[in-house]
Amino acid sequence: MNKLTTLAASTLLGLLPLASAQAAEYNLRFAHFWPATSGIHTAFESWGQALEEASDGRIEVEFYPSQTLTKAPQSYDAVKNRIADVTATVQGYSANRFPLTQVVELPGMAKTAAQGSCVIQSLYDEGKISGEYDDTHVLYVFTHGPGDIHTKEKAIHKPEDLAGLKIRRPTTVVAELLEGLGAQPVGMPAPETYPSLQRGVIDGVAMPWEGIKSFRLNEETQHHTEVGLYTLSFVVTMNKGIYDGMPEELKKIVDEHSGQVWSQKLATAFDELDRQGREEAAAAGHEIITLEGGAENAAWKPVLDAAAEKYLNELEERGLPARDVYARARELSASCGS
């Protein structure tokens, strides 16, 4: 064998391990509505990479951001029906489906995503809300930071300033809060807010600073009122059949990449993007109105308290232990925020 043939043979032998490497046993299609350029997408990618590394490539995660596989309001059902394998979505996009979970949306529950995520993941782990998710396999739940009011033309200093304004709301719970304040809530998922502001379909949005950053809304809003109106909840969940069909060693790896640890990793991303979104608005010279006491502000508190009571009463009338869950959430809020 001449030197050239020997070199070719050795090169081929060196490539054989790569060529014979087995494909992943599970290729998970992960659908969500954030842009691929957002920090939240990056956080999900880090989860996928960690899962792939821990499983030695037996699990791979393929991402479909920006509603490319399923629209945001249909994301949970898409996982249930295996159109997607994993999703990250807002529970409140499926109206009346997760009523006890949405107790965490009520005013004053959390001052940061880290605090809110600790509350909701603890409620899930304690079994207070887990029964609402029997049709999928939940990986982790979390919240964003405080949801505030961001408007295009009119500054909001007091509830009366909202009278008649069309404000995007993420869920029916937030809609009740906005109605109590005199606004006209308009339901829509976050990705639709930019063009809606551009066309004048809405006058503003209820959203955290993270959303203002992720969906480029500082380009369309000039006035920002920090009130801590609500805290939105999210779930990352997997098709139950896929999880149940995994061998025990892979289930264990999935379990190790679930729960409070990953809830807090997403919270960290949200809190950082809250900071960036606010800094971006300040640098652009926008008006930022910080209400003293936030949701406890004397002008706002009676209206917000009334809306919260209305929601809890409605759930209790349906036979749901809303006040028990709310009381536990408030206890957790105190300990998670310490």
Automatic annotation (TrEMBL):
The record, for Pfam families, names: DctP
Cite the InterPro entries for this sequence.
Answer: DctP_fam, TRAP_DctP_sf
Xref: Gene3D superfamilies: Bacterial extracellular solute-binding protein, family 7
In its keyword annotation, does this UniProt entry include S-adenosyl-L-methionine? no
One record GO biological process = transmembrane transport
Write the signal peptide boundaries: 1-23
Keywords for the protein's UniProt record, in alphabetical order: Signal
- Domain of life of the source: Bacteria
Instruction: Decide whether keyword Signal is in the record.
Output: yes
The protein in question is named C4-dicarboxylate ABC transporter substrate-binding protein
Please report the organism this UniProt entry assigns to the protein. Marinobacterium nitratireducens
